[in-house]
Amino acid sequence: MSDPVQVEPKFFTALIIEFGGMGKAAEALGVSYQAVHNWRKRGVPLSKIKMIEELSEKRVHRGML
Description:
Structural class: mainly alpha
Helix content: 55-70%
Strand content: 5-15%
Mean pLDDT: 93
Strand order of the largest sheet: 1-2
Largest sheet: 2 strands, antiparallel
CATH class: Mainly Alpha
């Protein structure tokens, strides 16, 4: 797994809105609810950022970091 990338609040908020909540984001990304919750403070793994971009059709993207 890659090192986590610290994210701006706008990225995290856009992620939650795009997927319809932390639970749905977790399900779509193949992780637990707790993992998504922890991303706010610990950062998001780069592999998941790529997946978020793909699943959101780049509506949520690394330019928001």
